[in-house]
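Field log, afternoon session.

UNIT: design team B
ACTIVITY: writing a sequence onto a fixed backbone
BACKBONE:
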């Protein structure tokens, strides 16, 4: 079967469903530490910034892994990358279980983040090759695996956390990762020929010429924008459980708000994918960034339990489509054979923004005794992302023909 016959085909959609299942399990390493953060803080007698360090190192490993594993996918395919990453994640869960101080636990989470990365950027880059007309929704659905993981697993493991402790949670996740990711990854061994994607390459070359930027320049601009949006995004996502504990609502309420936020993100990603298929990645990204900024403002005046549930849902619906849109912009402006590396780099920068924002918000809390200034900090970083997207959109517009004198 020719490549053109495979794109957007029944096989493409079947591959998408398998990829989504893998992402839902592989990405749990990113969210597990958020749920156990209050328990870890109590066990090790750490302050809020120190308790945030395992998450920060998880995100650093996750960031680097998106770039490194993305390059491996370009060269060796997705199956080998997923199998190795699943094994690394399982070993990292085991090392975390043996931790006796924050340094050990943080180091284990650095490697856990590296393994978890295979379930995000590399999977997004891989599935983008199998779609052309419906690439936006395909990328959005695979990216939703990250949020589905965060919405499902924290709530599912809440009782185990309360009864048996966070180490039992990590033991369960190690086993589930191996039993699910490795067998399903073997189904994805089929690879697509990049030299047959002539239409996709021609469109990306035309877009790049119109915007007047080299792939490297655009890559760095998108990376800077990604840092800005994700420093803002990290405040509610990383600290909502701790925020609720500080307000007296308890970790269970915080976990429910996180799940609600991420389920809203799933809905947002699906809608954004449909929008991107019609209007393109840049416009979709800009709209999502503006909506996220509005949602962050809503956290400032409202801290009641009911209002926080509502605002968290609004925040999830606002920001879910932002990160997948970066991958779409990469595919719209850069060569398809470089998708793993280019998408991996931009995803790395967004995740570094999450890591920076997660630590920064904890530090602001320790200094000020409140999360209010942390929300304000996120709003300012969000403004940077909006400004870059507006600039890119203006450069992408076709030049108007000049009037010729009569």
């Amino acid at each position: 079967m020719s490549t053109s016959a495979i794109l957007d085909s029944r096989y493409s959609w079947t591959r998408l469903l398998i990829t989504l299942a893998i992402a839902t399990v592989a990405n749990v390493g990113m969210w597990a530490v958020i749920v156990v953060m209050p328990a870890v803080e109590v066990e090790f007698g750490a302050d809020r910034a120190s308790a945030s360090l395992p998450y920060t190192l998880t995100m650093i490993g996750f960031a680097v892994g998106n770039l490194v594993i993305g390059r491996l996918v370009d060269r060796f395919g997705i199956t080998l990358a997923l199998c190795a990453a699943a094994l690394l994640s399982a070993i990292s869960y085991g090392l975390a279980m043996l931790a006796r101080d924050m340094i050990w636990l943080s180091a284990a989470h650095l490697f856990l983040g590296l393994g978890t990365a295979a379930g995000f950027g590399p999977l997004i880059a891989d599935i983008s090759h199998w779609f052309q007309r419906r690439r936006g929704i395909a990328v959005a659905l695979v990216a939703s695996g990250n949020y589905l993981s965060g919405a499902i697993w924290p709530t599912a493991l809440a009782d185990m956390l309360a009864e048996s402790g966070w180490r039992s949670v990590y033991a369960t996740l190690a086993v589930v990762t191996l039993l699910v990711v490795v067998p399903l990854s073997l189904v994805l061994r089929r690879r697509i020929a990049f030299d047959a994607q002539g239409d996709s390459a021609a469109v990306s070359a035309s877009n790049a010429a119109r915007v007047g930027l080299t792939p490297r320049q655009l890559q760095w601009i998108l990376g800077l924008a990604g840092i800005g949006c994700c420093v803002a995004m990290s405040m509610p996502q990383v600290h909502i459980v701790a925020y609720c504990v500080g307000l007296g609502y308890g970790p269970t309420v915080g976990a429910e708000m996180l799940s609600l936020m991420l389920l809203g993100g799933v809905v947002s990603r699906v809608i954004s994918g449909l929008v991107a298929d019609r209007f393109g990645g840049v416009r979709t990204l800009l709209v999502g960034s503006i909506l996220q900024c509005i949602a962050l403002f809503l956290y400032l005046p409202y801290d009641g339990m009911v209002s926080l549930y509502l605002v968290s849902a609004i925040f999830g619906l606002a920001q879910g489509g932002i990160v997948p849109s970066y991958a779409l912009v990469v595919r719209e402006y850069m060569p398809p054979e470089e998708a793993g590396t280019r998408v991996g780099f931009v995803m790395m920068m967004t995740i570094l923004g999450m890591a920076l924002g997660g630590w920064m918000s904890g530090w602001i809390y320790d200094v000020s005794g409140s999360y209010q200034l942390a929300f304000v900090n996120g709003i300012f970083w969000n403004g940077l992302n909006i400004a870059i997207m507006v600039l890119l959109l203006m450069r992408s517009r076709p030049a108007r023909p000049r009037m010729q004198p009569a």
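LOG NOTE: Residues 401-406 have pLDDT under 50 and may be disordered.
NEXT ACTIVITY: expression trials, pending approval
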